[in-house]
Each structure stands twice: as C-alpha cells, then as structure tokens.
Amino acid sequence: MSPTPLPVAPTWWAQSRISPDITLLREPWVTELLRCNVWHVRGKRRDLVIDSGLGVAPLLPQLDITSGHEPVVVLTHTHADHVGGWHEFPSRWLHEREAGLVDPDTSEPDLASLWAADLDIQESDHMRAAGYELPDCFLTAVPHHGFNLDSLPHHPAVPTRLLREGDVIDLGDRAFEVLHLPGHSPGSIGLYESREGLFFSGDAVYDGPLLDELAGSDIGEYIDTMRRLTEISVQTVLPGHGEIFGEQRLREITSGYLHRRDKT
Ligand SMILES: [Zn+2]
Ligand SMILES: [Zn+2]
User: Fold this and answer.
1) Three-state secondary-structure class, residue 68
2) What band does 110 get if pLDDT is binned at 50, 70 and 90?
3) pLDDT digits (tens, 9 = 90+) for 160-192
4) Which one of 3, 9, 68, 127 is least enclosed by Cβ atoms within 10 Å?
5) How far is the CA of 231 from the centre of ligand 2 (A)?
6) What does residue 195 show for φ and ψ, rounded to 5 degrees?
7) How far apart are CA 110 and CA 214, in angstroms?
8) Which of 38, 84, 46 is nearest to 65 (CA)?
9) How far is CA 81 from CA 136, 217, 220, 251, in A?
10) Helix (H, G, I), strand (E, B) or coil at 117
11) 1 and 150 Cβ atoms separated by less than 8 Å
C-alpha cells in the first residue's frame, strides 16, 4: 500500500522481569493501539502465558519456560493484538463466549491487515474519538526481510479448555480465579489471585482510553463489569495494555467510566 520500506527490527520482543516469577513481553515495533502486554507467569507445576501478541513473529521460542512445564496460553479475549501467538501453544484456554472466534472452521480474522485504512470505518472513528492516534501502518519495523505488510497472519486453532466465571487456574504455588468481565468483548476475562492481590485484567481495564464500541462490545455489560471492579480488592493490576497500576488508580478508572457511561 505504501512504497516506504520499514526497517527490520533487530529483535522483535522486549522482555522485562516484573518479579522473580513474572515476565512482561512487548512488541516495541507495534504502534500503541495494538501493542499488547504478554505476561509469562512461572508456577510450580505449570507456566501460564496470558495473551500472545499480534502474531507477526513467533512468541513461544522467546519464552524461558520452566523445564518440564507445559506452557498454557490463556487469552483474555480474541482481539487481533492478543490472539496472534495462540496457535503456537499446546494448551490453549479462553472464555467459552469467544470459542467460535478461534475455531478454524468458522473464524474470520479480527484484523486482516496492518494498515489503518483497512479498519472498519466505525471502529476507527471510535478509536480516534477515544483518543488514539491511528498511524498509516500499525508497525514501525518488520520482523524479517520479505515480511508482507498487506496481510496479517491468521492462525485459528481450537481451544483445549473453555473457561467460565469462577474457574480456577492452579499453577501449583498460586491459583488464579477466572473473572468474566464482558463489555470490551463478550468473552473478556481477568485472572485474579486474592492472596497477593494480583489482577491480570486484559482489556477490561487498563490505564488508557477504554474501547466499548468495537464489534462485539456491549456498553451495558461494560457498566456491570466496571461496577463489579469497583468492589475488587487488589494490590497490582497487570493490564492488557500500558503500565501496571494499583487499587487507587483502578478506582479512578472504574469510577471515571461509570461517570461517563452510566446514566441510570
Ligand atoms: Zn481488545
Ligand atoms: Zn488489546
């Protein structure tokens, strides 16, 4: 679409150690809107990977998986910036309400191209109105020579476990409760660990412009989710985008959303 060649990135993934057993991976060459946080949690019995990036470069080989552990990927939801590396993992879990969106027989790509001009017009208007800049291209570099910018890889793969509200994901030394948090998307989930107050929140809540008018979004459900999150007790929110924050900022974000959207 554009003749301007992008440089080849020296390395695709940037990693930072959040704690002895939690690593954050990001794709610095993906523009802000689609730069998702991938969280790798090393447990005593299994390694959990929360979300999987855009899928333009392999994720699994980058992970320092604990020897003998089968890595499990859990999607907070199936938007293109979270589902990209899903097919690489032998164990693939997500909420039952989005199972059809990764089914090889029925699924359509959430995003087929890396060019903003190819976005659905209503969705791009919503993103701009929310405060996002939409650059021409969602990448500022390519992962390798010959990379095709005109089609985003789409690798649907059947889930190996469907998650529901209240399910427990046990890593051996810590366990996460599945919270169903619809609104941004129908099957959005968060993973909550009450002992340390850890909350992996996906795109249900992060410290940036929230999106509630995408295909599959539901503002009424989002209001209920935000009401629920005003009650939750957390130490650390590890979101789907942007930086880590704490309970006070969570309260500000949820009350800000409810002030803006909840007129009842
Ligand atoms: Zn999303
Ligand atoms: Zn996202």
Assistant:
1) coil
2) confident
3) 999 999 999 999 999 999 999 999 999 999 999
4) 3
5) 24
6) -60, -50
7) 11
8) 46
9) 17, 16, 24, 26
10) helix
11) yes
The residue extents of the domains of the chain are 14-261
Which of the ligands is closest to the CA of residue 185?
1
What span, in angstroms and rounded, lies between the C-alpha atoms of 8 and 76? 29
Record the tokens describing residue 10, joined without a space: 């020296």
Q: Which fold has domain 14-261?
A: Metallo-beta-lactamase; Chain A (3.60.15)
pLDDT on residue 4:
63
d(CA 222, CA 185): 9
| CA 189–ligand 2 middle distance (angstroms) | 12
On whether the pTM is more than 0.85, the answer is yes
Residue 199 tokens read as: 């909350």
Token match 């359509």: residue? 108
**Distances in Å between the alpha carbon of 112 and those of 74, 78, 151, 155, 229?**
22, 14, 6, 11, 33
- Cα–Cα distance measured from residue 73 to residue 41, given in angstroms and rounded to the nearest whole number: 10
pLDDT at 3: 52
The torsion angles phi and psi of 57, rounded to 5 degrees, stand at -145, 145
Distance (Å) from CA 184 to ligand 1 centroid: 6
Residues 6+ apart with CB under 8 A from 65: 47, 71
Distance (Å) from CA 68 to ligand 2 centroid: 31
Residue 45 contacts residue 69 (beta carbons within 8 Å): yes
